[in-house]
Give the backbone structure.
Amino acid sequence: NAGVTQTPKFQVLKTGQSMTLQCAQDMNHEYMSWYRQDPGMGLRLIHYSVGAGITDQGEVPNGYNVSRSTTEDFPLRLLSAAPSQTSVYFCASRAQGNQPQHFGDGTRLSIL
Amino acid sequence: GIQVEQSPPDLILQEGANSTLRCNFSDSVNNLQWFHQNPWGQLINLFYIPSGTKQNGRLSATTVATERYSLLYISSSQTTDSGVYFCAVLSGYSSASKIIFGSGTRLSIRP
């Protein structure tokens, strides 16, 4: 059971480039979320989804897009990378109801 | 929205000491988790504890939902306990997917 899998683990981009961070879960969880963690800080919610075809904004959505075409996958897109988006990105999933959240190992993203 | 405050922000202890970490939240919650972020950045789920008390080895946690706080106890600390401890809460059903994190307690255990 792989749980929540994020790829890539590390990425360096130039300002203005675009890329997609991948997240997949094999637990058939309805809810999936993306967070960013900046140095010395807690996690902040970027976007989330309550099921396939449904997404919504979190605390810091600007500069990011998401889609949820399947239950398993929840990719995060940076359309035009900016240095302020340098961070560690975590994907998480949980089952419906008051259930614990499970996290991937994170993607370390640097924007030059 | 709900506010989550953790204290203390930093804690330095000698190996073998006990510690108590606190998480206060400003509104009623349906879900509370404690996580340990290890030095490699991984988030390890410690407890799912919306109310009551749970224990797992040297760690235990208590949530008093009516008084809006949770405590994480670490006994006989080991150097491997070092890292950042986060609490995260889910509040309400209208924003069912929004889990909000506290800013964490950074724990350093000296050998």
Observations:
- The mean pLDDT of chain A is 93.
